[in-house]
Structures are given as structure tokens and as C-alpha cells.
Amino acid sequence: MSDHPRDEFRTQLLNHTMRFAAAYVPAYGEVAYRCLSDVHALAQLPSLPILKKSDILMRPEAFRHISMEPHLIQHTSGTSGQILHVHRSKEELAAIESFFSKSDEPTDKTTPVIISILGSTTDAIQTPAPAVGQVFRLNLRDPTWRSRIQDVVRAPWEYVEGTHHARPAVIVGLESDLRVLTALLRECSFDFSSASISSLITSGDVITRRLRRYYESTWRAPLFDQYGLSEIFGSCNQCGVCGHLHPDPHVIMEVVNPISSEPVSDGVGIAVFTTLAPFVQCQPFIRYWSGDLVEISEVSCPVDLLGFRLLGRLYKSVSLPGLTGSGIVLSAIEAYDALDDFSEIASSGMFKWLWEIKDHSQLGHLKFDLRMDSDRGSHTLVATIETRFTPHLYPEQSESLKFRIRDALCKRSGSLRESIQAGHMSLRINLKPPGSIDSFMPDMVE
Ligand SMILES: [Zn+2]
């Protein structure tokens, strides 16, 4: 596909991975994968079938190594249906440990402290891999640690072993946990200029433009996105050079059309991942359908040739029947991003166990629902949105809000704007009073 160093590395591991899978994993020895052992180049991958979670759930044993014992069993979050268990063997964990330890340098003043924040309700079992710095786990569920967060972010090096010298510190965690940490600090009027945090790395939720401004101005530090699936060892990280997300070197990512599964090199499609041996051996994933929409574009970045932006879950997006290309007129993240600028829109109260927080709605998610109504060839996108006020009591304010929301959605999605202008669909905005939409879960990405 290219002579980029990352693709060279992937290509080197590709054929061995394919032959290994064909020899030891029953499903990959079947007729659908008959040309597996002949795959030597990234460009040959589209000749192989797309693998979906439902395919594995039907017969999980067929997708696992015939004799390797599981040493660690991970699972998907289950927010998008049935939970998939992922087996990891001792052999692959040892390979991960040895590969990532090579770059380890002795602890000194420049080794960063990584504050790994834990607090949300999901307990994902992570694949153990050596970190690039010394990790301190800050458990926000523990009230003792919550009472010490100001000290932790001021001098995080005091909480890791070794020398107690000031050095760079990074906060890593789910966006919802960063939301909790930031709110807790603001609640006690913490002076963020005294924090020793050089950057923030978050995953698991949508970073809207408003949220990015909020975090970066509050912490006075840049925020980087991270995206990954619990099934796949490896993730995609926001690039400091071009701003796009790039997959890790030890994982292959392709983008395919959500309807035809044909490769997409420019535009909107579904992220598809292939894991590589020796990092994954017990349960290899070959062309695994993530269910997440991304937008790729030609990037001339020295880090990686594949650069993309995340658009959220396919099933949370809105498609227009008959529309060419991806068929998507509004992705989950475009919708959330456009609506997040409106303070009039209600949000759910989350983390109610945090007694230190007075207004739990600041930790929640916007309450809205999108649905495409199709009737005899006529298509209407119905956006039902809960407001913080009762719409019929304030008719003028409601009309103005509807107008501004429509404008924001059309500005955010060119596909939506063009489809409305061309008369292929219409957009209806229904405002609902407080309490109309309950138990809202955004479920944007795995
Ligand atoms: Zn880049």
C-alpha cells in the first residue's frame, strides 16, 4: 500500500499473522478464508470477508486458538448488545511486555507521571502493557482520594515511587471521569494554574468543540482524543502534528462503506480492524467491523498515512434511504457537537453518588433523540429535544431556539444541508418540557 514506516511494520507482521490464524484458529481455516495464507500486502486485505461481532458470538470457540490457554479474559462493555469475551494468552501478554519494554528508559526527572483516573461504572479489564511513564491510579470512587485531588494534581510525582522531583504529568482516562475530576476541583474553587498537568488524554466519549474549549481553558493544557475497541489490542490516538486520529502501529485499520463494505479511501465509512501477531494470538480479529463511523481524508502526516475523525456509532447515526455514498446525513457526533452549544437543552443527571457535586446535570449528557420518519417516499428527520424550560410557556423563545438548532445542525453536516436543500428530506424539531426524555445514554463509541 505504501512505504510508510508504520505500514512497513504492519506488512512485516501481516503474512505471519494470516498463516498463524489459518493454521490454529478453526474459523480462519474455512472456505471463506481460503486465500488467507496468500495475503502478504495491506492492499490484499479487502479480498477477505468482514467479520462482525455476531459472527463470533454464534460460535466463539471457532474464533479462538485450538490449544492456547486463556490467561486473561476481557469483555466488551455490552452497551451495543451481547457481551463478547476476549481471551488473551500468556504468550501474547509476554510478547506485549517484551516489545513495549524495549523503549523503557530508567526513571528520572523527565519520565512523566501518568495520572490514570478511575470513577465511572464500567470496569474494563485492560491488557497489561508497559506504560511510557510511572502510573498513579486515582480512584474517584474513594472519598479519601476525592478529598486529596487538589494535592494530587498539584504534585503528582509525590504519589509514585522513586525520586520526588517535579516532572511532566499527564491525565489519562475516560472523558466521563475527567468530567468528574474537573467538576470536583471546580466545586472547591481550585486554582487550576497551580496544577502540574501538561496534557489530557481521554477516551470513551464524545469530545465536542465546547467540551474541548472547556477542558483546555480550565486545565490550561491541550486535550488529545483516544479511540479504541475493548476487543482490539491497540488504539487510535489524536496526532499532535495533524490533529487526526491515527491507529497504533501494531494494528491495521481500514475504512469500508457501511452498506456495501467496499473500501473507502476518502469520506465516511466504518472502521474495520485487523490485529497482528505476536501481539494477539489467542483470538485474532481479521477485518473486524467496529460499528463506528469515521471520516477519513488524505493526510500527508509523517506519523501515519491513515488519518481520520470519529463520527460515532453507526446505529446512532441518521441515514437517508437512497442517498449515495455512506447514506448518512447526520452522524451521532455531528448531532451531539451541534447541540452541545445550546445551554437551553437539558442534560441528564449523572454520578449522583458524588455528594460533593451540587448540580449533577453538569456531569450528564444532552437529552435528545433523532429518528428518520419515512412515509411513501417522503423522509423527515425528527429531532426530539428536551429543554430546561417548558416550551409552550415561552413560544417566542421556543421558535427562536428551533431556528438556531436547525441552523446549527445544517452547518455541522453538509450532507444534511444538501439533502434538505435538494428537497430529498425535511427536518422537524420538537421541543419537549423538562422530564420528557428519561434515562438517556449517549453510547457514542465502544
Ligand atoms: Zn498526524
TrEMBL record:
Recorded GO MF terms: ligase activity
SUPFAM superfamilies reported for this sequence: Acetyl-CoA synthetase-like
InterPro entries listed in its UniProt record: ANL_N_sf, CapK_Type1_Caps_Biosynth
Descriptive protein name: Phenylacetate-coenzyme A ligase PaaK-like adenylate-forming protein
